[in-house]
From TrEMBL:
TM helices/strands, residue ranges: 14-35
InterPro entries: Antenna_a/b, Light-harvesting_complex
Keywords attached to this entry: Antenna complex, Bacteriochlorophyll, Cell membrane, Chlorophyll, Chromophore, Light-harvesting polypeptide, Magnesium, Membrane, Metal-binding, Transmembrane, Transmembrane helix
Biological process annotations from GO: photosynthesis, light reaction
Segments forming a coiled coil: none
Native organism taxonomy: Bacteria, Pseudomonadati, Pseudomonadota, Betaproteobacteria, Burkholderiales
Protein name: Light-harvesting protein B-800-850 alpha chain
Cited Pfam families: LHC (PF00556)
Family annotation (Gene3D superfamilies): Light-harvesting complex (4.10.220.20)
Originating organism: Polynucleobacter kasalickyi
Length: 67
């Protein structure tokens, strides 16, 4: 562990909940920012996803041979 000595200063009963709280808070803020700053996320979550254009799975036509 890189920061193994940290637990000599901070008790794990305090440090681990603080780290988990910080990760949850950061994740919540990122998701909130996505919802507030984009137009497509709200539509996607409401079931209004854009229609997917069908992809052409056929091989491209062969190039003409040089004479």
């Amino acid at each position: 562990m890189i920061y193994g000595k940290m637990w000599c200063v901070v008790k794990p009963t305090l440090g681990i909940p603080l780290i988990l709280t910080a990760v949850a808070f950061g994740s919540f803020n990122v998701h909130l920012a996505l919802l507030n700053n984009t137009t497509w996320v709200k539509g996607f979550l409401n079931g209004n996803a854009a229609k997917v254009v069908s992809m052409n799975t056929e091989a491209p036509p062969a190039a003409p041979k040089a004479q």
